[in-house]
Design goal:
heterotrimer, A: 129 residues, mainly alpha, Arc Repressor Mutant, subunit A, 6 helices, C: 299 residues, alpha/beta, Rossmann fold, 7-stranded mixed sheet, 4-stranded antiparallel sheet, 14 strands
């Protein structure tokens, strides 16, 4: 069973941290298809967080199609995110590599690249809300 | 809630029962012995109504025990007030556990009612037992000493200890509720209780029933009934009569020897009568009769003993009820 | 749905001082509510008014639709944990449970003993000899075993060490997960409450400063950092909560229901701690509106 951690200082909302940690577990193969996620009570026993937060995280995962909630039985993994699914996004990856080449040619340092990418991700995420 | 009150009270209850048990044993053993001795001495006395020679030494030999028991019965109400009453609520408020209890579906009123009822009952019972023990124990002494109205005696026999106990307990409780700290509540309870006891005994008790005024002329007949006559250390000072009137009455006030025009006379004027060693009280009365002297005094007759006991007890009980009511009123307005 | 706490212009005065003034709240059920404020802000007063230990000087308050402290049923609906978790020192833990079973109309004996056992406490231990954390756990067990609909906790973790704090919150959240109990807990440190609260009430100087669901509050507030400028040069529809200026730079905390349009500023999310502190500092003397900010989701 996976262990959850919560970092209140990271600036990332609690439920998002749960979502990310489930995604990570799927990526690393710690969770396989058909595995049951810890129950709300179990998560609350690991980290003292609001049960609603756990429910919210599981709902997000369900909406992303990664898990499915079976009433009375629990929440089960439906799809894994192994390295293979990264290869699904090969076209995007190539576009990204091209852009990075351009950005480095324009003289951006690694730190500036990082800041630019983070800010743009955040700002565009805001617009979509 | 009853069970909880018992658990919280367990220590005080144990101490009290131990003291009561010890007192009972002491009273029974010494008392039975004393009553036997008294019966024997009375049988040997030809005229008990007039006076028995054995009595003064009898009284003297039991003086220490009497004082001891009287101290116990006298102190009991105050101790009840300090150790039962004050901590009852103050200790609970101080440590905050009342907040837990009041959230366990006990309303503050019920909480208070159970505590007060159980401990008030215990206080009355304790006072009753102590008073009963002492009143029985001292009955031979009391019969002959004509001391019934003295402060120490009146307050430790009969029903008055119950009134004091109820009042002291209620006082401690309400002060504990108002002050909310145990030690200060104990101190104030003691102070107020003592103050009221002093004021009541000095000012109120003599006036609970109207007193009787009387004038006693000085002659052989009247002098044969008093206990003594004399001046103070100064032989030229005023002359006093000890215990005028009926022996068992409660003398509230008495003037010194006055002549027919109402002026105090001095000891020098009657020194021939007073200093004559061959005269007993009746003889002195005969000697003084020509001077037309008298004293004015006020008193409560012996018959008023029990009415006064009940009146005083009633007063203290009423006060206790008032204070108890104040507790309930207070807890409805100021819970926390 | 009946609100957990509904207060209208609630006020409480002690002598000349108003401990709580003009407090209007409507807290929906199903939340873990964090009541935050500095010491002396009125948190304890509000909680005591909610469980009937105090009566209002002005205004009114109902809890789960009933007047606080009015009879056994109302008391049974509300579980209260006073500050410093008082218990009866003369009684053992088992005695406490017996007392609870005896006094309350609803008492879950099995739950209570299971809790005590899972905490590793010895039932025969006298409550007076427990550590602070153990006392808090016992008091919480007493409050939850009567199956209340709402739990009210007054600074429950203030005097606990980090481990005891974590264990206490776990037990509390377990209760919420298991029974769906609503919770109101107060603290003067938001960091104590961040993990567990999804609804926030900020109190300062006897007044409510901010009320709302945590998620929505953090969604509508942002830090705006830009070159030195006046607050009214910001876009319309954006409410300025706080403003700080240096000679070159201005930092605003803004509240906006719609996303900030792009402009020559940097927009960053506001953390819960900053949010609480800003609204606490924003006293009646500041330029901001006096009315508490209410963020209610459409229901």
């Amino acid at each position: 069973m996976i262990e959850f951690r919560l970092d209140p200082r990271s600036g990332v909302a609690a439920y998002l941290q749960i979502v990310q940690q489930v995604r990570q577990a799927l990526l690393l193969g710690m969770l396989a298809e058909g595995d049951r996620l810890p129950t709300v009570k179990q998560v609350v026993g690991m980290v003292a967080i609001n049960p609603n937060t756990v429910l919210k995280a599981y709902r997000e995962l369900e909406m992303a199609g990664l898990v499915v909630a079976k009433p009375g039985a629990g929440t089960f993994v439906t799809k894994t995110l192994t390295q293979s699914s990264i290869t699904e996004h090969e076209p995007l990856r190539r576009e990204l590599e091209a852009w990075l080449a351009k950005a480095r040619a324009a003289g951006l340092t690694e730190a500036e690249l990082d800041a630019l990418i983070r800010a743009t991700v955040r700002d565009t995420a805001d617009e979509e809300k | 809630m009853i069970w909880l009150t018992w658990r919280q009270f367990r220590f005080q209850a144990t101490v009290t029962l131990t003291i009561l048990a010890a007192a009972t044993i002491y009273v029974m053993t010494t008392g039975l012995r004393m009553h036997h001795a008294y019966a024997a001495d009375i049988a040997a006395c030809p005229h008990p109504e007039i006076g028995c020679r054995f009595f003064l030494s009898f009284q003297g030999s039991y003086n220490a025990e009497q004082r001891l028991l009287e101290m116990l019965v006298f102190a009991a109400p105050a101790l009840i007030g300090i150790f039962w009453g004050a901590p009852l609520i103050a200790a609970e408020l101080e440590r905050g556990s009342h907040r837990m209890l009041w959230n366990q579906s006990v309303t503050p009123t019920r909480w208070l009612a159970v505590k007060l009822a159980i401990l008030a009952l215990a206080a009355l019972l304790t006072a009753a037992v102590l008073s009963l023990l002492l009143t029985w124990w001292a009955s031979p002494l009391d019969q002959r000493s004509n001391d019934r109205f003295a402060a120490m005696t009146f307050g430790t026999r009969g029903v008055t200890p119950l009134g004091y106990a109820a009042f002291a307990f209620a006082l401690g409780t309400v002060l504990g509720l108002l002050i909310r700290r145990t030690l200060p509540a104990m101190a104030v309870t003691l102070a107020v209780f003592i103050a009221l006891q002093i004021v009541f005994a000095a000012v109120l008790r003599p006036n609970l029933l109207p007193s009787t005024a009387a004038t006693m002329p000085i002659n052989a007949t009247t002098m044969s009934q008093v206990q003594g006559i004399g001046t103070g250390p100064d032989p030229s000072g005023p002359v006093q009569i000890f215990r005028p009137g009926k022996a068992d009455a409660w003398i509230l006030s008495a003037t010194n020897l006055e002549n027919s025009s109402g002026h105090e006379i001095s000891g020098n004027q009657v020194s021939t009568c007073l200093n004559n060693q061959s005269l007993d009280l009746t003889g002195i009365g005969d000697c003084l009769a020509p001077y037309n002297l008298h004293i004015d005094y006020t008193y409560q007759p012996a018959d008023n003993y029990w009415p006064l006991q009940w009146l005083e007890t009633g007063f203290y009980l009423a006060l206790a009820a008032l204070l108890g009511g104040a507790c309930f009123w207070r807890i409805r307005r100021h819970r926390d | 749905m009946t609100a957990i706490v509904e207060a209208h212009a609630l006020g409480k005065r002690f002598g000349a001082r108003w401990a709580l003034a003009d407090c209007t709240l409507n807290i929906p059920p199903g939340h873990v509510v964090g009541l935050v404020g500095p010491n002396g802000a009125g948190k304890s007063t509000l909680l005591k008014l909610a469980c009937g230990l105090l009566t209002p000087t002005s205004g009114s308050i109902t809890v789960l639709g009933g007047r606080p402290g009015s009879g056994r049923e109302q008391i049974a609906k509300v579980g209260y944990l006073a500050q410093d978790a008082p218990v009866e020192p003369a009684l053992s833990i088992a005695d406490h449970l017996r007392l609870g079973a005896h006094l309350n109309p609803r008492w879950d004996k099995a739950l209570a003993s299971a809790r005590i056992a899972s905490l590793g406490l010895d039932p025969k231990q006298k409550a007076g000899k427990l550590s602070g954390g153990q006392r808090a756990q016992l008091a919480l067990t007493m409050a939850t075993s009567k199956h209340p609909q709402v739990l009210i906790l007054d600074e429950p973790v203030a005097s606990l060490d980090p481990l005891a704090r974590r264990d206490f919150l776990k037990l509390l959240m377990d209760t919420v997960a298991e029974h769906g109990t609503s919770v109101i807990l107060s603290s003067h440190l938001i960091s104590d409450l961040e993990r567990v609260c999804d609804y926030l009430v900020v109190l300062a100087a006897a007044q409510v400063r901010l009320v709302g669901e945590v998620e929505e509050l953090t969604a509508v507030h942002r830090w705006i950092t830009c070159t030195r400028r006046d607050a009214d040069t910001l876009p319309a529809g954006v409410e300025v909560v706080s403003a700080k200026h240096t000679d070159r730079q201005s930092t605003f905390m803004v509240r906006s229901d719609t996303p900030m349009p792009p402009g020559d500023w940097v927009s960053e999310p506001v953390g819960l701690e900053d949010l609480v502190l800003t609204y606490m500092e924003r006293g009646p003397a500041s330029a901001g509106p006096l009315a508490p900010r209410n963020v209610e989701s459409a229901r």
